[in-house]
User: What shape does this take?
Amino acid sequence: MDDVFEETKAERSETVDLNGGGNGDDFLKIEISDALNEKDKVKFTVKTKTNMKNLSSSEFSTIREHEEFIWLHDRFVEFEDYAGYIIPPAPPRPDFDSSREKLQRLTEGESSMTKEEYAKMKQELESEYLALFKKTVQMHEVFLNRLSSHPIFKCDSNLKVFLEYNKNLNVRSKNTKERFGGFVKSISKNADELRFINIKETDEFFDGQKKFLTDYHNKIREDCSRADRMTYVHKSVADCYIRVSTGLSNAATGELDPLSKFLTKLADYFETARKTENRMSSDTDLKLSDTLRYYVRDSKAALDLLHRRTKRLSDFETENRNLEKARKNHKDEKNAEQAQQNAKLKFEQISELARSELSDFKTRRISMFKKSLCEFVELQIKHSNAQVQTLRTLLQEQA
Assistant: This one.
């Protein structure tokens, strides 16, 4: 299994659409055709097809690492012209440490297990790791698809470099100084939130959106934790079934018929039930937890948009006060008027864009949750029926 962790290749699998697609004559289709895990890093093969004239070719591919995805995300966040848009959340960093730790614990406890039990546990860990790897690939592709489906983002020059430049972008992980700078920005943002408390929102739409998104973000984060616990319970039950099945198989070898046959069939039942529980765990993680987890990050991106708009409103009110002061003192009135007009224009522009973005966010969110929850319920019904049928078959055989 060491080979599985050190070098894993994922062929293209079905992608969960979290962006709602795009419109327009110009198309930009991006997919991660495969990926390779090399010990401490994952290399993604990004394949592009397009008819956009600002790109050099209609079809090309390049290899990118996670840090380069983060670099691209940061470029969008830092570009002031995009302040009025919801910036798609960056894909999570690939993290396979927990799977490696489980493998290490399993290896250390091998002497206390039977050969059959160890083989089953190892197989489960391999399946869990491969599912995590494919999910990592998928979330990186979702990020690119959100950018490519946006009428403005898909024309971005940094995205063009990311897709076309066929060499390493020489992007490194943030050092201590840069991480500290990010921490300072976070503190500054929290300070702004306190400062903005006294700013009265006169637009009912944005006032309602802020209240809703704040409550929505907190609740969906709690729901994500609950879904993760449910996934963990399914996985724990499956692991218990391994021990029960192995114990019954061992007991069957020491008994005479008909008890031996009964114990063997009972062991087979728990083995089948184990596989079903594992599938339920995987489907819960994919269809429920992943959807919730993604919208925890996406709702945070929407709140960041509202934060930027409030900052523009604060700047506008500040310039209004400066203008009043300049007129009162009859000093530098022209510059104050110009600054006030610029602040007003920026605030009106970000408000117009934000209104459209938040409406799109609502449509996209409802569509995705409807799709994911329907699929989740259908799979749960399917697996429950399979469990009932397996148990019914066992009882009929003993009748």
Residues 1-7, 11-23 have pLDDT under 50 and may be disordered. The longest helix spans residues 259-329. The longest strand covers residues 28-38. The two ends are 43 Å apart (CA to CA).
